[in-house]
Design a protein that fits this description.
Number of helices: 12
Largest sheet: 8 strands, parallel
Strand order of the largest sheet: 5-4-3-10-9-8-7-6
Structural class: alpha/beta
CATH superfamily of the largest domain: Aldolase class I
CATH architecture of the largest domain: Alpha-Beta Barrel
Distance between the termini: 49 Å
Number of domains: 2
Shape: globular
Radius of gyration: 20 Å
CATH topology of the largest domain: TIM Barrel
CATH class of the largest domain: Alpha Beta
């Protein structure tokens, strides 16, 4: 039986034979209001969640302040017209809030944890002593971040949106070799909101079989039925975005549940644990089950832009050595994958490069 125990002020056991671990994702639904963030935590507890998850980044730790074409957001109607920097200014959770949010969550009986997006965020979260880490779908290939998180020795939950089987296997291997004791992998559709025919919930059972991990589902749909079907496929962790009211708008409003809906989802999950099927026709269940599949699916590929890659952050002369001062891993995904970061450090530039240039193979001297 595969389980892991979350240690800390709030303790939980997750996995086989245990209640499904239900996570309320706050993301940017606080609209830069600390009071709203507190309201979301309270609503999560009231709705029956086991945990509240936030994201730890600033615009500068996740992207670059550039307005060139690669940094213009062209996907998702709610995000179009923004640069990545302006989008993350609106969506980030201020770091000075996070200790207080953790205190509030734990006072409500919730496990509090976060998804870091760069190495400095991991150092910050270690100071908060969070009990587990989340790796977001777009960061699954951020090898330097995975190594840093693995070295904390904490449990890690990974979302697998867009990832191929090889990328999932590399993420698990990287985390465990760095010191992570156990990894859970959540099936995830990075379409906002996700549609029933995109879900392929059969992937959940396949994840457990292929990778020998605790499987789960990070759901970006606006329904409650999908999570109940996910339980039938062996999901032991459910993650869903929570907002006080979609009428408030914001970057994540279009795929977040309101408190009453979140509570309905929790009830559907608990009923599914007892064997109750969702109130859907068999054809509708089959549509959501689909088949096990990995990698970008139809409607998801456009979001690959949100993956991080290697970027030039200072002007580099031809023949100049690449260092941590002039290269960085940030979104978007136009450059070399982060797994090549250590390889290119110490090598020389094949030509002069300007700031905000994605590092590509032909820009590195052989």
């Amino acid at each position: 039986m595969k389980t892991f125990s979350i240690k800390g002020k709030i303790e939980k056991t997750v996995g086989e034979g245990q209640p499904v671990f239900i996570i309320a994702e706050m993301s940017g639904n606080h609209h830069q209001s600390f009071e709203k963030a507190i309201e979301i935590i309270d609503a999560a507890a009231e709705a029956g969640a086991d945990a509240i998850k936030i994201q730890t980044y600033t615009p500068d730790t996740i992207t670059l302040k550039c307005e060139s074409e690669p940094f213009q957001v062209k996907v998702n109607e709610a995000w179009r017209g923004e640069t990545l920097y302006s989008l993350y200014e609106k969506a980030h959770t201020p770091w000075e809030w996070q200790a207080k949010l953790k205190e509030r969550a734990e006072s409500k009986g919730l496990v509090f944890f976060s998804a870091p997006f760069d190495i400095t965020a991991v150092d910050f979260l270690e100071e908060l002593d969070i009990p587990i880490y989340k790796i977001a779908s777009f960061e699954i290939g951020h090898v330097p971040l995975l190594e840093k998180v693995g070295k904390t020795g904490k449990l890690v939950i990974v979302s697998s949106g867009l990832a191929t089987e090889k990328e999932i296997a590399l993420a698990i291997k990287t985390l465990k070799e760095a010191g992570c004791p156990e990894v859970a992998v959540l099936h995830c559709v990075v379409s906002y909101p996700a549609k029933p025919k995109q879900m392929n919930l059969a992937t959940i059972a396949d994840i457990e079989k292929k990778f020998d991990v605790i499987p789960g589902f990070s759901d970006h749909s606006l329904e409650t039925e999908a999570t109940a079907i996910a339980i039938s496929q062996g999901a032991k962790i459910i993650e869903k975005h929570l907002i006080i009211s979609r009428d408030e708008g914001g970057p994540d409003a279009g795929f977040s549940l309101e408190p009453a809906e979140f509570k309905e989802m929790v009830e559907a999950v608990r009923a599914a644990e007892k064997g109750k099927k969702p109130d859907l026709k068999e054809t509708e269940i089959e549509k959501r089950l689909g088949k096990a599949c990995y990698g970008p699916r139809k409607g998801e590929a456009e979001n690959k832009i949100f993956r991080p890659s290697i970027w030039v952050v200072k002007e580099v002369a031809e023949g100049e050595t690449f260092t941590e001062e002039n290269l960085i891993v940030r979104r978007p995904g136009n450059g070399l994958e982060p797994k090549h970061y250590k390889e290119v450090l110490g090598k020389k530039a094949a030509k002069a490069l300007k700031k905000c240039t994605p590092l590509e193979e032909d820009l590195v001297q052989k």
